[in-house]
Amino acid sequence: MKIKLLTLFFLGITSLSAQTTHNLNWQIGIGTNVDLTIEVGDTVIWNWTDNAPHTVTSLPGSAESFNSGSITGNGSTYSRVFNIVGSNPYECSFHPFSMAGTITVQNTLSVNDFFKNGFSISPNPVKTVINLKMPLNVKIDEVKIYNLLGKEVYFNSILEKQINISKLSNGIYLVKISSEGKTKTKRFIKI
């Protein structure tokens, strides 16, 4: 019984540490595209940045139903933890044409998802700059580029989404990305 409780405790701590809090300013004139893409279990906090009364109210068809009620005052907040995958369109009931957005909730991506789904390189073939597109919340340890002879021609421990390869000779190269002791490799052609 103690082992089961200890296991649940550590799983709970692990899942809490993966959650993220997102802050949105909420004021008249903020616009109609106050959109976020978040993961299951993340918290969104709307921060009032004017003194007008506002609501944060889900619209019909939203994956989750929520309503802050009327809140007034600069510095006031409303927070919501999202737990259901899907789209959550919302608005201020007082200002629906100038204060609206969508919170899109997706499943949590892990390092295993990264290595199952990988990353993408564009354009390919490429002349000067390759663009790396990574899944959300994957911590990348390093990026290396190798020629076909196995010689390392690029290394960076800070993930850059764009890598200038203009100085490389034309040919076929491999991009190797490492995360938490695992690696994934993709090929690109330099022209």
Automatic annotation (TrEMBL):
Residues 121-189 form the Secretion system C-terminal sorting domain. GO terms for molecular function: copper ion binding; electron transfer activity. Transmembrane segments: none annotated. Residues 35-106 form the Blue (type 1) copper domain. InterPro entries: BlueCu_1, Cupredoxin, ET_Amicyanin, Secre_tail. Pfam families: Copper-bind, Por_Secre_tail. Keywords: Copper, Metal-binding, Signal. Residues 1-20 form the signal peptide. This is Por secretion system C-terminal sorting domain-containing protein. It comes from Algibacter luteus.
